[in-house]
Amino acid sequence: MSGGAQRYVPTNAIKSAVAGHEIHVLDALGISWRIGRPHIHCPYPTHTDEHASWRWDERRVRAFCSCITGAHDIFNVVAAVERLDFSATKVRVAELLGRPDLIIHTMGVHSPQEAHARVHARRTVLKGSGVLDRKQGQSVQACTREPAVP
C-alpha cells in the first residue's frame, strides 16, 4: 500500500476465522490436494518435487512433505506457496476466506503491536461511551440516555 498505509490482521482473530475452513484456503490457492490421495507434487515454489510427496491431512489439519521437517499448518502453507512473511500471510488468509472485516487498515502505525493497541483502545473508549455493542460486534447509537428536560 502507498502513503505509509499498512494492513494488519490480529493473530487470534484470523486463527479463529480459519479454524475448520483450512480446505477452503487450499482450494482458493489452487492446490489440488484432493486428487493426489495420498500425495501430490509439492505446491511450494522452492521444492522441485520429482515424486509426489506433499499431502494435506484433514484430520490433523496439517501438510506433510519431504521438503519440510515436521508438519505445516495452513499459515505455513500459504506463506510457503506465496512467499510471504507471517504478517502478510494473515492478511492473505483473511482475503482467501472472504473476511475483509478482519483486515485493519492503518496509517502512521509502525508495528502490528501498535495497530492492535490502537484498535483495542478505540474499542474500550467506544464501549465505555455506550456506542459499541460488543455482543453484536458492530457500532450502534446508544439508546439508554434520558431525553433532555426543557
Mean pLDDT: 80
Strand arrangement within the widest β-sheet reads 1-4
Structural class: alpha+beta
Major sheet details: 2 strands, antiparallel
> What's the β-strand tally?
6
User: What is the CATH architecture term of the largest domain?
Assistant: Alpha-Beta Complex
Architecture overview:
α1 packs across α5, α2 packs parallel to α4 and α4 crosses α5. The protein has two domains: 104 residues, Zinc finger, CHC2-typedomain (DNA Primase, Chain A); 33 residues. The chain is elongated and about 50 Å long. It contains six helices and six strands. The C terminus is likely disordered. The chain has 150 residues and is α+β, with helices and mostly antiparallel strands. Helix content is 38%, strand content 12%. The strands form three sheets. A two-stranded antiparallel ribbon has the order 1-4. A two-stranded antiparallel ribbon has the order 2-3. It has a two-stranded antiparallel ribbon with strand order 5-6.
Question: Can you describe this structure in just a few lines?
Answer:
The protein is an alpha+beta fold. It has helices at residues 11-18, 22-29, 33-36, 74-82, 86-96, 112-128, and strands spanning 5-8, 55-57, 62-64, 104-107, 132-133, 138-139. The strands form 3 sheets. Strands 1-4 form a two-stranded antiparallel ribbon.
